Amino acid sequence: MFQRILVANRGEIALRVIRACKELGVEVVAVYSQADRDAPYLELADRAICIGKAASADSYLNIPRLIAAAEVADVQAIHPGYGFLSENPQFAEICRSCNFEFIGPPHEAIRKMGLKTEAKLIAAEAKVASVPGSDGAVTSEAEALRLAKAIGFPVLIKAAAGGGGKGMRVVRDEATLPASVQSARNEAEAAFKNPAIYLEKYIDRPRHVEVQILADLHGNVVHCWDRDCSLQRRHQKLVEEAAAQLPIDVRRKLGEAAVRLAKAVGYTNAGTCEFLVDAENNFYFIEVNARIQVEHPVTEEITGIDLVQQQIRIAAGEPLPFGQDDVRSEGHAIEVRINSEDPDHDFRPSAGRITDLRVPGGPGVRWDSHVRAGYSVPPNYDSLVGKLIVHAPSRPQALARMRRALDELVIEGIKTTIPLHRRIFRHKDFLEGNVDTTWVERVLMPPK
Ligand code: ADP
């Protein structure tokens, strides 16, 4: 096992990694930008090193500064968390060439999976069905038109290097295709410095179901079942559940597909294969996320596996301590993302000082958050202030538990998504499981 690890991240996930290290008896070094100087979790690390100014480019995205901090602190490994550099193959490669183990997959696997067009080709080799679409990037409007006609409208334009829902355009007819191709390319270039786009069939009201993978350095790959992340707004997840409400044979097939895919790309460490599921329970691969995900706790709750500790153990060369048949799926877990955003005003970010914080407790309730009363949410980074997670023997019990936990949770001083979640957990469609990725915008908050 490593003696010391550096966490190249901030906020909730930095604290999550610190906790995992403590339980493993590993020393942990935190880094922070000037904007995070007073972040409460820094005190929980064995050491905290300032890496630069508030702007991410000067701190959490700055590879030389992170490597310098790792050298100064004399760590053996670097945990990238999620976001920032977590899926940057160059960062993974630089870490390893500087003799720091990168707690994540091989950089070759990150690189291949980072280009969604490439990932779909690998999926095809692994006999995993993807959403029908273009085999690779689309370069001209004429080609886009020809392909869209072959696929059949509506189609979805996606950025090959995309993430976070950026660069996506639904196109319903020929007339609007050229303008959408152009604007998607511009958005992709601006967001990912790569204008490559591709086309997919737009699946009507799908559910988003993803599979958690763990793969060690000795060829063992297991899936840790699934999560349903259909509750999204503008392709950003709001609520995640495990297990997905699907027949057990479909869940098994999803898991097996994800394992085949991970093996095909030489994947190691923790990762997620994302799928869309249609009304007939057909599933289509969309992408791999080569990192720990925000929603990993729901999987931890139903399986009893500490995924972050497993990431560290795998990177240290330990074989997985369990086989596929040992990975259970027990009860039902739900996570809601509490963001510092104003749901009444187009989810405008709401930075500022938290004046009061009252956190729910009781059976089956987990609160993963870096904030406390008196803490000021900086305006510089993403808006996640906490994740409220519940676990119960059944979905109805988990829903009731989340409802009462949300009613106990009080965050004052900033606007949050708590009122939105209280509505969701009282809505008949959601309670009955009748939601899809378009439900929030179609039913819960339709355009005025
Ligand atoms: P990103 O990496 O930007 O998050 P994804 O490929 O993971 O993009 O897709 C994000 C979300 O967009 C999905 O969860 C789903 O809601 C929607 N989506 C993606 N592809 C399709 C598709 N072909 N048809 C319908 N919805 C889609």
Report a brief summary of the structure:
With 448 residues, this protein is α+β, with helices and mostly antiparallel strands.
Walk me through what this model shows.
One of its GO terms (molecular function) is biotin carboxylase activity. This is Biotin carboxylase. Residues 1-445 form the Biotin carboxylation domain. This protein is a component of the acetyl coenzyme A carboxylase complex; first, biotin carboxylase catalyzes the carboxylation of the carrier protein and then the transcarboxylase transfers the carboxyl group to form malonyl-CoA. Helices cover 32% and strands 26% of the residues. By secondary structure, it is α+β, with helices and mostly antiparallel strands. The strands form six sheets. An eight-stranded antiparallel sheet has the order 13-12-9-10-11-14-21-19, with helices on both faces. A hairpin with a 5-residue loop joins strand 9 and strand 10. The protein is globular. The relative contact order is 0.12. Residues 131, 156, 162-166, 200-203, 206, 208, 232, 235, 274, 276, 286-287, 437 line the site of adenosine-5'-diphosphate (ADP).
